[in-house]
Amino acid sequence: MAATFKYQPAWAIDVSAPGSSRNFPRFLSMRFACNASISTPLSISHHSSTESTLILIRHGESLWNEKNLFTGCCDVPLTKRGVEEAIEAGKRISYIPVDVIFTSALIRAQMTAMLAMTQHHHKKVPIIIHNESEEATTWTQVYSAKTTKQSIPVITAWQLNERMYGELQGLNKQETAERYGKEKVHEWRRSYDIPPPKGESLEMCSQRAVAYFKDFIEPQLKSGKHVMVAAHGNSLRSIIMYLDRLTSQEVTDLELSTGIPLLYIYKEGKFISRGSPVGSTEAGVYAYTQSLAVYRQELDEMSH
């Protein structure tokens, strides 16, 4: 039975529809036309090809990144540099089509997604879908079919939030290392299954983030939608672990820079990593550690 989840009356997103109407080249000239249309005021149209794109973006620098504090699930905004990183990320993906955006429930990820879309070629307006209550849904409904067609729904989900750092949240990272010892803090930050006091391990973060990705984001890609996800270092590392089939050791070595988009092609049930676009016509390097970048580049060259 077709599953349809309605975030707002203006947008009903069917997660079981067939694929995309656009046939994209195997790789990316990045000069994609973004002509996704909306067939009625109440639905986003479905494409008819088997390829779709997935963009992952870690939020730009936050005020607590700047202060070297453990942020976790605390809700802090971007710095001026973070705003600039988000805008630059938007320029890098400006010709990649986007039909729907998923973000965490935290403002730094939402700001990043919104600012990035100001640079998009098709100038569609991202609109956060409020479905917390029937009243919120009613009050934020869009009644213009034309406006809906020129908009992109943004779905927020706490499951995409940053790893919850428990009693470390708000603490200075350097001072915490001096208090508990560098080895212990490194263990909390870089092990896969050891949580900080009253916090989440990467494994625990992965369980919620990947479950949400499988249940809500992957069906959009299967139906041919082009998706952007703006989230956090650990929730995105978790998703990348699933997409790239990384081991628990590989994912702990994975580094993601703030404001750098990562691109995947979803085709025939498989995710194909395309690295980080550095502009509208050029693909960049992988945002992995140096050794993993070299390793995965060699794999790509062997398989193409």
Automatic annotation (TrEMBL):
Its EC number is 5.4.2.11. GO terms for biological process: glycolytic process. Substrate binds at residues 58-65, 71-72, 108, 162-165, 173, 189-190, 233-234. PROSITE patterns: PG_MUTASE (PS00175). InterPro entries: His_Pase_superF_clade-1, His_PPase_superfam, PG/BPGM_mutase_AS, Phosphogly_mut1. Keywords: Glycolysis, Isomerase. The active site is at residues 59, 162. The record marks 232 as: Transition state stabilizer. GO terms for molecular function: phosphoglycerate mutase activity. It holds the Pfam family His_Phos_1. Coiled coil: none annotated. It comes from the Eukaryota. The keyword Isomerase applies. Belongs to the phosphoglycerate mutase family. BPG-dependent PGAM subfamily. This is phosphoglycerate mutase (2,3-diphosphoglycerate-dependent). It comes from Clitoria ternatea.
